[in-house]
Design goal:
Number of strands: 9
Largest sheet: 5 strands, parallel
Bound molecules: adenosine-5'-triphosphate, magnesium ion
Radius of gyration: 24 Å
CATH class of the largest domain: Alpha Beta
Number of helices: 15
Strand order of the largest sheet: 2-3-4-1-5
CATH topology of the largest domain: Rossmann fold
CATH superfamily of the largest domain: P-loop containing nucleotide triphosphate hydrolases
């Protein structure tokens, strides 16, 4: 009996299906480590809950650490703000450095703490033009100091081959923090392209919008949508961890599991895990069959329903009406048109904007351009149709 190698609800050990992104990251890593170059654009991967954002960033981090880059990891959204979290991360990572090496870093850390910490300066919400100026000033000063801090940290060639800042849940970062980071990166790009540093962030589908609201020059950010996994990637995610334990999947079992999981990484892990259990946690030499997948289905459905129930409970009546309409319209077509929605809900199409934006922010619907939306997580639309009747 071997324990399951699958990771429902945990960081994935490998990220099949993300090859292009991994390749891109590897190339940028080489630019930093081998050629001592700055990665001038802040990279942001975005997608729904459970699509694999954190797993992707962790995979990047493993690659970076293999190349002896210093990695700072921040999960945005703490009340102290993004910049304070970055400061804390750098302080922690350089704590064991000898005094002489870290002296400049500590100086900048303290300076930045003071700049950011002045009440009402960095966090001012800018109601009057005087305040706007004060805020801009503080951000500029903060950005300059952050830039100096990044330089001092990344420039220590003895200890650091490159500096990579990882920011998870970036949609929850404060606007001031995003602005400060963006300005700092803009300065670095213009004045110090030879500093081996990069920022890789991940967030929900509203991350690009949140960032665009915070900074005017958000084209400095490189956005990468995370898609559902292809059949091939799902097969790799199911087969490879088992193969490492000398357990094989029958090909019709793989096919069925991939079909049921429909590309959703969390569901793939649930199927892998439940099929493993159904097969009796096989020893080396064992096989997972289509029958095991069939047995697994009940427990996977239960887990997914719990997830959907929690997401559903977390919506307002208005959002529910919208979701119900999308779920029923989606039964017949992949993408739901704004005008069709307005008709079903009997409201003007403009009045739908804010509820639509909230649902995108929650990662419950995805905008497919031209005003169309879809409920992307497999099974969720069906769950909603079971709960609520067709409003038409
Ligand atoms: N490329 C992948 N292949 C297979 N499984 C994956 C892949 N990426 C992530 N997973 C699995 O999918 C689930 C969700 O992964 P992860 O926590 O990284 O997603 P997330 O987008 O960060 O979710 P959240 O928005 O809830 O933070 C986990 O069970 C993880 O093991
Ligand atoms: Mg995550």
């Amino acid at each position: 009996m071997q324990p399951s190698p699958y990771t429902p609800g945990e960081i994935a050990r490998a990220v099949p299906g993300r090859g292009e992104l991994i390749e891109e990251f590897t190339e940028r890593l080489s630019l930093m480590v081998d050629l001592q170059r700055l990665i001038g654009r802040v990279h942001v991967a975005f997608g729904e809950r459970g699509i694999g954002k954190t797993s992707l960033l962790r995979a990047y981090q493993r690659l970076a650490e293999e190349r002896e880059a210093l990695c700072i990891w921040v999960t945005a959204g703490e009340p102290a703000g993004l910049v304070v979290q970055i400061i804390d991360g750098i302080r922690e990572a350089t704590r064991s450095w000898p005094q002489a090496a870290a002296a400049t870093i500590r100086e900048h850390l303290d300076e930045l703490t003071v700049t950011i910490g002045v009440p009402g300066v960095a966090s001012v919400s800018a109601k009057t033009s005087a305040k706007t100026k004060a805020a801009t000033m503080a951000e500029t000063v903060g950005a300059r100091t952050l830039e100096k801090l990044i330089r001092a940290t990344a420039e220590d060639r003895k200890r650091v081959k490159a500096l990579v800042l990882f920011i998870d849940e970036v949609q929850s970062a404060d606007a001031d923090g995003i602005r400060t980071l963006a300005y700092a990166w803009q300065h670095l790009q213009a004045e110090h392209p030879d500093i081996p540093a990069a920022v890789y962030a991940a967030g929900l589908p509203n991350a690009p919008e949140q960032i665009a609201d915070a900074v005017t020059f958000s084209e400095r950010f490189a956005y990468r949508p995370l898609e559902m996994l292809s059949v091939g990637a799902q097969v790799a995610a199911l087969r490879d961890p088992a193969a490492e334990l000398n357990v094989a999947w029958d090909s019709d079992a793989l096919e069925r599991a991939a079909e049921l999981a429909a590309g959703y990484p969390y569901a793939v892990q649930l199927y892998g895990d439940a099929a493993w259990v159904a097969a009796g946690r096989p020893d080396a030499g064992g096989t997972i069959t289509k029958r095991n997948v069939k047995t697994a289905r009940a427990s996977v459905d239960r887990d997914l329903r719990n997830l959907f129930a929690a997401r559903w409970a977390n919506t307002t009546p208005n959002q529910r009406r919208f979701l119900v309409a999308v779920a029923w319209l989606q039964e017949k077509q992949d993408f739901v048109d704004r005008a069709d929605l307005a008709e079903v809900l009997d409201v003007s199409s403009r009045s739908l904007s804010s509820v639509r934006a909230r649902l995108i922010a929650k990662g419950l619907i995805r905008s497919e351009g031209h005003g169309t939306v879809t409920i992307p997580v497999p099974g969720f639309a069906g769950y909603i149709r079971e709960l609520e009747e067709d409003p038409r």
